Amino acid sequence: MRLHHATAEVPSRRDRWLAAGLLLAVLAIAYGVLVHPWWTVPMREADARIESLQQRELRLRMQLQQAPQVAARLHQVREQYADTPGFLPEANAELATASLIQRLETVVAEASPGNRSCAITNRSPLDSDNRQSYRRVVAQVRLRCGTLELSRVLYLLESGSPRLFVDNLNILTETLYLSRNQSVDMGGLDVSFDLAGYLLPLDAPTTAGVSDAP
């Protein structure tokens, strides 16, 4: 009788372990099918969003703390614009081009009153590459001048305010050909160049510019 009782107890214990294993497997499957996709994953995504928002809030708070320094720097830059004029004060390229040409006419008239020894033969606006930080305005100019008058014109253009720049300067001597083997130097110069200036950056004050235009 004792032997029969011990033999019957062994399968019962094995069944209990098997049932426990099956229960764990069912729980794992239930977690994978029901709990993980419907609870764990959304909670992790929510935690990630909360962390991202916290980091963004921290960055915004740090930027707000720097606001007084930024405002002080902006005020300093504006004072620099006001004290050192260098940029063209016009609001757009069309007005700035007209200002360039008017400046050219004034300078030529000053260097040669009545255009006796220096005259403008052509002036026209040029399209320029404005992908750089500062908007560049260019006018193509052609003059007929004497040597001294040309020197005076170039000096007045590049030494005044706002700052202007003379680029692509070409100078040819005017010569009169009398015959096949004879020519006379007429003493005049045929001059062409690009006259350029820079507009204020779009986010800068429009009343003045900086002398350090590129």
UniProtKB/TrEMBL annotation:
Q: Where are the transmembrane segments?
A: 20-39
Q: Please indicate which superkingdom the organism of origin belongs to.
A: Bacteria
The UniProt keyword set, sorted, is: Membrane, Transmembrane, Transmembrane helix
The answer on whether this UniProt entry bears the keyword Transmembrane reads yes
- Which Pfam families has this protein been placed in? T2SSM_b
Q: Membrane among the record's keywords?
A: yes
Entries under InterPro entries matching the protein: T2SSM_b (IPR034756)
State what protein this is by name.
Answer: General secretion pathway protein GspM
Q: Which organism is it from?
A: Novilysobacter ciconiae
